[in-house]
Amino acid sequence: MKNLCNRYILICFLSLLIIAAISFTTTTTAVAAKQIITNKSKKTIVVDPGHGGYDIGTKGLGNTMEKNVTLRLARMLAEELGHKYKTVLTRTDDYHLDLNSRTSVANHLKADVFISIHTGGSFLHDADGIVIFYFKEIEERPISRDLYSSGADNVWHHLQIRHIKASGLLAGLIKKSIYEHKLYPKVIVKNSPLLILEGADTPAVLVETGYLTNPSEEKKFNDPNYLQGLAKCISIGIERFLLETSHEE
Ligand SMILES: [Zn+2]
After folding, report:
1. 59-86 per-position pLDDT tens digit
2. Span from the CA of 75 to the centroid of ligand 1 (angstroms)
3. Looking at residues 123-146, what average pLDDT do you find?
4. How far, in Å, is the centroid of ligand 1 from the Cα of 44?
5. Looking at domain 43-248, which of 3.40.630.40, 3.40.50.300, 3.10.129.10, 2.40.30.40 is its CATH number?
6. Distance 118 CA to ligand 1 centre (A)
């Protein structure tokens, strides 16, 4: 009777071990599957702080330099977006980077959005407003048929064309978000044949975040709360854009 009882306990123990092993394998598989889904769904945003190094950009009357404002704001924006997306800065410090290298970062990473940050500048000290640019095609540039040329440059010029509609939508959603948060009263969306946008093979915008040459706007650029608010508004616009366009993939 005692032997029978021991055998019964052993069988029960072994069964429990088998059940635990099966359950562990299932859970591990489920976790692995979830991770794959999460990684696949993690969108990539490339944020480009304009200028850098010897290229200081615009300079305000109070000596605030555009290259520093753009880096500060880009870092804040990357922080905001980093909670939900993989976010990459084209430059992380004060050094020079040419235009094509900036766009190349987005193309190389197959980014879902490319956003370049700048400030405006004008000899008119009362010029103000935020301008959000998306690309405008100026002329039909034929793909090179030259046997001695790879045609790579021509292809580069055509990369943004198929994203123009999406880029316009992205610009509009960032504008809407800034208005909704009453952060700034004058936001304009414009299309323009900007070099920084033409080689981006993804929806792309350039945000000129106000005029550094306007003393009252320069003051705002030195206010971390204002920059943080701006970063929040831009990130909300990007998030809405990604939600709105995700079903089209
Ligand atoms: Zn600039």
Report:
1. 999 999 999 999 999 999 999 999 999 9
2. 16
3. 78
4. 23
5. 3.40.630.40
6. 4
